[in-house]
Amino acid sequence: MSAKSSDPFASSETTITKPSVRSIKYTTNIRSSLNDDEATQTATTKELLTDSVELNSMSLDDKAANPSTSGSASPPVDAAPRAASASSPSLPDVVFKYPLNATRIDGHTVPIPLRVMERYVQQHSVDALRNDPHPEHRRYAIAFTQCPLQAGNHAHIFWNGILWSILTNRTVLYKYWDQETCLKHGQNIHKHICKMANTEADCAQVLVRAPWIASYDEWKHVFDEDGEPFQIPYHATMGRSRDEPRFPVPDNYEESYGVDLVSKYPQRLVIFSECYSKFQQLANSALQETVLLSEYGRKTVVELFSRGDNFLYGMLHRYTFELAAPLRAKVLESTPTLLNDTDYYTIGLHSRHRFDSLDGCDISREIDCFRQVLSSPRRDKSLPVKVGLMSDRTCTVDKLTSYLEQKNITVVAAKHDEPSPDTKVEHGPFAGAAFFVDMAIVSAARSAFIAMSRSSSDLMRELIVFDQIMERWEARLDNSQDRVTQCTLPYISDPDAKKKGEVADA
Predict the structure, then answer these.
(1) How far is CA 54 from CA 164, 170, 467, in A?
(2) Residue 488 phi, psi (nearest 5)
(3) pLDDT of the residue at 328
(4) Which of 101, 156, 159, 365 has minimal Cβ neighbours within 10 Å of its Cβ?
(5) Residue 60 pLDDT greater than 50, yes or no
(6) CB-based contacts of 185, cutoff 8 Å, min separation 6
(7) How far is CA 150 from CA 203, 261, 269, 276, 413, in A?
């Protein structure tokens, strides 16, 4: 192809060379750049025992240098036990790269949101609890988690629980969202949804939870035997503008809105109202001033959102979950090459179809987005293009693969087992654990992302933005902004809506 061609799919190279075989990079390799300097813990035991302690936003102090004889980085305090070696020598162990346990690496400042997260982990991790002689003096919040079904919704519910715990200086405790927990604590959630809840054993086959997060089941002994968590009112955190039919604005609205969440709700154990997506409204200064009245809360929320909501939630993802070993092996089996290879312009695509009547064979909206992305001035046309594909419709993947390969574009997609006979389940015939295999492949893109505005797509969008910025930070390159080009797939109405006498909501 000629470099002067107007075709957005064209590159300056006439041929596409096959990439070399490499192991997949699941997390940013930050720890490899660390020396043995680790930050000291800023909070004293006395501060940790004080419920109303306000944390300053200063960077953590560095310890005196103590380089090891090997020069390699020391493992994080809360590092997960290394899994047994897999049959493939290139399969990485399940190791968490975060927390960093440091705020300055070779004079290079860690992004502000990570400093906040590092400080929180130091003061509220399970190790901090074990070293606290009076854990009963703390305030706590429960954050619920579930997987693999309803992945996007439940992941964001969990991260929002952690986010509010940070903003109100509470120690977060995870609790698995099984059927019993859903029926007990689900606010106006339909019982049939609760019956679909996965077990904790199901989730363990998909995701490994970070070991720094304390478990409610292990620490419930610090509460009264008959003590129940207090449910903070929905509008106390959502704000007046949040329109949610399940939670109408109460008559005593002012009593639960625009209050200091720390002083208004002093209960030792609380549950924040679930939110199935990113708390983007917290980035709005007006809501910050009405929902967060404490100086600490207002200062911290600005710091957390200083790199944008995608970076923030990608950070929460990396600090809390890693793909379990069986699924990592499945990803490696599907594609032994890196999608985030710097020798390529890499694009991730997640195509969702909300209605059963959509078979996914019309790929015109995906092609339109590809044209926009490839025409972006950010694109380096000297690089060949590689695309990671996932969809809830096999026809979409098949047709896009054929179309892109005709354009000399390398396509990377997971090799799934036999599809589910029920293709109408959430995320199509490869729902559940297979979704996370797809997610691992697509979220390795670094140049562009194409998807609808859905919480499941946000999982990849957040990881791509966070990992791209952190990789540039690690390489000492300009990481001041999000460089990922994005295109949002337009919403498709239900073609059967008129037959049903319904109007599909946009």
Answers:
(1) 15, 11, 30
(2) -95, 125
(3) 87
(4) 365
(5) no
(6) 144, 229, 231, 271
(7) 12, 29, 26, 10, 21
